[in-house]
Amino acid sequence: MGGYILGRILAAIPVMGFVALFVFLLLRLTPGDPAAIIAGDAATPEQLELIREKLGLNEALHVQFFTWIGRLFQGDFGTSLLSGKPVTELIAARLEPTISLALTTITLSIIIAVPLGVIAAWKQGTLIDRFVMALSVLGFSVPIFVIGYVMISVFALDLKWLPVQGFKPIGEGFGAFAERIALPTLTLTLLYIALIARITRTSMLEILGEDYVRTAHAKGLKEWQVLMRHALRNCAVPIVTVIGIGFALIISGVVVTESVFNLPGIGRLTVDAVLARDYPVIQAVILLASLIYVVINLVIDILYVFLDPRIRYA
To answer: Can you give the pLDDT at residue 190?
Structure first.
């Protein structure tokens, strides 16, 4: 197991290197001038040239790239072109809203989606099964921002149950935190309930037709025992896989959700950086998202060993 984990970590290094190179070239080869955005419309050519010189934008691409990589190895993600603050400081200040939204979303999705998928498979062809499938289609079909605006219209503007926008840290009180995080969590949760419930149902249907499940029924075990101990336990691998992938995909989902609900998280930071062509911030955020994805995939692979004894890594 130790050798496998080490191999995966070593294999992730060239992947992250490729991501770094791709992001670096993509940002610099697209149209637009950060110096013009920083200086404003009234800037003279001399002022623009001074800004480019100060930021190192006049240097050759390979010089800019290796300078940036060298700083990364020292833990320096650079300085924001827009605010002049260190990128690590900007990201650290925005982490709590994004992490809070991700954790509440994936937790609520698992609590709701896994039982729904199990029940849908157990009651295949019934009204419950059709309801779960309709919910899945709805979750996949409707864009996140549409769901978000519907949530705001119903729960904030019409019913006035919850505030429209903003974020309160959990340190300021759980009630205020829950009030602000509820609508964005529900918005993202609808998407991931659809994903997890559908995979859970499909996996359960395959397992429920196995001989050992029929044997369990023949032994007189109660229905919930058959479903939980025999069926759900044996389809844990695909369910955990899709949960892990869903958690990684939340990183992209928060960009839209945080914009809709005005949450000061990584998603909003990314949008602002893209609009301002703030290279250091964009590069750092994409690298961070890629690293999270790689780590989550590694954790999922390790969990396979505990979920299915038949899986062994040399």
So the answer is: 84
